[in-house]
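Quick question, first post here. What does this chain look like in 3D?
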Amino acid sequence: MGANELLSNEVLPQVVGLGWPRTGTLSLCEALEMLGFGPCYHMRTLLQSGDAAWHPWEAAAAEKQNQTRRAELVVQALRGYRSAADVPTVAFWRDLVHAHNIGLLPYSVYFVLPQRPAEDWYNSAAATVLAGWQRATVANSAHAERMARVVWAQMFGRKRLKLPEEREEIMAAYQRHQAEVMQKVVSPALVRWVPSDGWAGLCTGLGVSENRCPHETFPWRNRLGSTSDLLEQAVDGLPELAEVTPLRVAVLVLNAALTIFIFAACCGIGNGRSSD
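> Answer (accepted):
Ran it through. Tokens below.
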């Protein structure tokens, strides 16, 4: 079975990445698959899985009162995957920690927190994923509205940010996330990983023996597929395909282009070794 093939619904994540986009999330996901923790749930999973894949995330975002119910919905979304990283997973990290505490996730699960200085993270995110989010929300993309409601609102407490005016507030939110994860997730469940450490830090933190740690180069990923691949993935998740009219074709093209920009930013298309 390939690393990207969905497993039985009885399979639950053994490793969960709690890093925000632009902290090596795609590199981490591919590394986990190479270590045998595949398939890994990533933002690309949503773009490839169709509209129904959003439903448990949307339900979890809408559930404001019952954290256990939120946790159940998030775990439901991740069934069949041995690991997860990036958004939307990290937007619901508190619910996953709660799921672990009440036994909805395996006791042996690891939570990996990539460590990146706040200013470095902001400079990378502001030029990519945050800029893509801002442009998409201004353009009223249906995909961007859903991302804002389901993902960004969970992370920042609101759907819109102003760049660069709110630079300090955004960096502070990133730092709070790092600090809160380190406070609420205790050893040995917490693995603090510096992406530049590659295999060494990851294998040690996950208890992977030296003979099981890959000898291949660590999968640094700041490029994922061609533009046509991204367009195909983006269109796969757009419900507008159900009715094709000239107006909907125009909307599809705009939504797909904005989705590609956001996805490319999240996955780190461009130069720079560990900026994903």
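The longest strand covers residues 110-114.
The beta strands are 15-17, 40-41, 83-84, 110-114, 190-193.
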